Amino acid sequence: MEGMTLTWPDYIVILGTMCVSTGIGIYYKFTGNRQRTTAEYFTANKSMGTLPVGIALMVTFISAVALLGISSDSYTHGTMYVVFYIPFLLVVPIVCYGYYPIFYKLQLTSVFEYLKLRFGNFARSTTSWANWVQLLLYSGICLYAPALALEVTAGLPQLWSIIALGVVCAFYSSIGGMKAVLVTDVFQGFLMLAAVFMVIITAAWNVGGLGEIWRIAKEGGRLEINNFSLNPTERHSWWSLTFGGMTVLLSMNGVSQVQVQRLMTVKNLHSARKAMVINMIIHNLFGIATCFAGLAIYSRYHDCDPKASGRITSNDQLMPFYIMDTLSQFPGLPGLFISGIFSAALSTISASLNSLAAITLEDHVKPIYEKCWKRSISEPLMMKIGKSLAFAYGLVCIGIALCGQFLGSVLQASLSINGCIGGTVLGIFTLGMLVESANEPGAVFGLLSTLVFVMWISFGTPRPTPAELPASITGCEFNITSTPFNGISNFDGITREDDDNSTEDSAYFYLYRISYMWYSVIGFVGTFVVGFVASCIYRCFVAADDNEKKRLDPDLFFPVIASRIRHRHQMQQS
C-alpha cells in the first residue's frame, strides 16, 4: 500500500465534483418557484423530462454498494449474479401496466396514502414505518461503502469520509428538493460510468484486450451462468436470482417511495413508462458492465489476490485498490474514480432523504397535526418541516454508516435489507391491488407476521460464511504480511475453500443457510398468502357483511381487476 495515496490533483477533482453537487442544490434553492410548495419540493411540479428521470431511476439503484459489491462478487464468486438482471424484462411491463396506472390516477405524494384509501390508517402507518426502517438502513450502507474506497486509497479514517459525504448530501438534498436531486443524479451518473469503464479499459490495456480478460476469468473458474440447482441454500442459482431478482426489482420499481416519487415528476403516465424503459436499458447495461469490471480486476490479481496477500481487509475494497495500484502514477485519474464512487453514494442517499422526508411528513406529521389542531397544516410550515426532516435524516444516516463495518459484504447486506422488508411491502400493496376481498386486519397481520419471520431468518446467527472461489498468491513478489482470509486448507500459495462444505454447513440451522436472494420472495409470498387467508378468516368469523357494506373503488386495483369492478357496478345500477 506504500505510495498508493491520493495527490493534490485528485483532491481537487473530488472537491470539484462535491462542489458541483452542492452548487446544483443552491441553484434550485434560488430559482424557479424557489421550493415554495411541497409539490415543487417533492415532485418538481411534474416538469422533468423522461431521459433525466430514466437516468435518475438507474443511479438510485446502482449505488456505491452496487459498484463495489457487484464487482467484488464477480471477482470472488463468479458471474452468476448477472442473471439478476434478466427478470427486469418482465418487471417493466408489470409495473408500467399494473402499479403505475394506480399511482398516476391517485396523484399521491406518499405511496402509502394508497394503503389508507384501500385498507385504512393502521395499514398505512405500519407499512410506512417498515419502509422508513428499510430506507434508513439502506442509506447508511450506501454511505458506508464509499468510505471503504477513501480509506483504502487515501488512508483517511472512515469516520471523516462518512461525515463529509453525509453532510454534503444532506445539505443539497434538503435545500434543493427533487429538482436538485434529479439533476445531480444525471451528473453523478456520468461519473459512475467513468469509474466502471476506467477499470475495464485499463485492465484490457494491461493484459492485451477484452478477450484476454475473458480467457483469464475462464481459467480461474469465474465464468458461471449455469447453476440450475434447486437447493435454496445455494447462494446464487438461476432460480434464486430469477425469482429473488424479480421481487426485489418489483419492490424497488413498483411500490418504492423513492422510485415512484421520481416517476411522478414527469407530466403523465406515458412519460413515466418511457422513463422506466430507459431505466431498464441503462440499468442492465451498467450492471453487466460492473460484473465484467470484477473480471477485469481478476485479470490483474488472478495470481496474487490482494486480500489473501494481506494488502486489503475486505473484498469490497478490490475496485478502489485496483485503481490506486494501476493509476496512482496518473494524478487526477484516481480522484475521478473516487468521485464516481462518491457520486454513486450521493445519488442513492439524496433520493432516500427526500423520500424519507416525504413519507414522514405525509404519513405521520400531517395526520398527527390535523388530529391535534383540528385543521390542515399550512404549506410554509410543511416546507420548513420537510427540509428539516431531509437534513436530519442525513445526520441519522451518518450514524448508521458508522456501524456498517459489522454488516459484512455491502452487496449482500443491502439486498438482505431490501429483500426482507421490500418483499413484505410489495406483498401488502399487491394484495390490495389484486384481491378485492382483502381487508385491513388480514393485510396488516400478513405484513407483520411475515416481516418478523423474514427478519429472523435474515439476521439470525450464527450462519455459515459464503464459500469463495480459489484465489492464488503464487505470483506475489513480496512477503505475506498478514493472515489470509478464512477457508485456507493448505498454505501452499493457493487459498481455497474446502471442496465439500456440506458437513460444515449442516451444523448451522437450516433457515439461516437459505440464500439471501430468497428473502424477498419469502417476504412477498408470505405477506400475500397469509394476508389473503387472514382476510378470509376475519371476513367469515368477525365481519361477515363487511364487503357488502363497503363499495370498492376501482381506481385502487390493477386495471384488469378495475374493469371487472366497474362492470359489476354497472350491472348493479342497471
Brief sketch in words of this structure:
The chain is an all-alpha fold and 574 residues long.
Describe the structure.
The chain has 574 residues and is mainly α. It folds into two domains: 8-543, Sodium/glucose cotransporter; 544-574, no CATH class. Helices cover 69% and strands 1% of the residues. The chain is built from 21 helices and two strands. It has helices at 8-29, 38-43, 50-61, 64-77, 88-106, 113-118, 121-154, 158-207, 210-219, 238-254, 257-263, 269-301, 318-327, 333-373, 379-401, 410-434, 440-459, 502-505, 519-541, 546-549, 559-573; strands at residues 471-472, 494-495. It has a two-stranded antiparallel sheet with strand order 1-2. It is globular.
Q: What keywords describe this structure?
A:
single chain; 574 residues; mainly alpha; Sodium/glucose cotransporter; 2 domains; two-stranded antiparallel ribbon; 21 helices; 1% strand; globular
Structural class: mainly alpha
Report the span from N to C terminus.
80 Å
Oligomer designation: single chain
Work out the helicity level. Answer: 55-70%
Task: Give me the CATH fold name of the largest domain.
Answer: Sodium/glucose cotransporter
Which parts are unreliable, with pLDDT below 50 for 5 consecutive residues or more? 481-503
How does the major sheet shape up? 2 strands, antiparallel
Outline type = globular
Spatial strand order of the main sheet: 1-2
β-sheet strand percentage: under 5%
- What is the number of domains? 2
Lay out the secondary structure:
Layout: H1 8-29, H2 38-43, H3 50-61, H4 64-77, H5 88-106, H6 113-118, H7 121-154, H8 158-207, H9 210-219, H10 238-254, H11 257-263, H12 269-301, H13 318-327, H14 333-373, H15 379-401, H16 410-434, H17 440-459, E1 471-472, E2 494-495, H18 502-505, H19 519-541, H20 546-549, H21 559-573
Antiparallel strand pairs: 1-2
Helix pairs in contact: 1-8, 1-14, 3-8, 3-11, 3-12, 3-14, 4-12, 4-14, 4-16, 5-10, 5-12, 7-8, 7-13, 7-14, 7-15, 7-16, 7-17, 8-9, 8-12, 8-14, 8-15, 9-12, 10-16, 10-19, 13-14, 14-15, 16-17, 16-19, 17-19
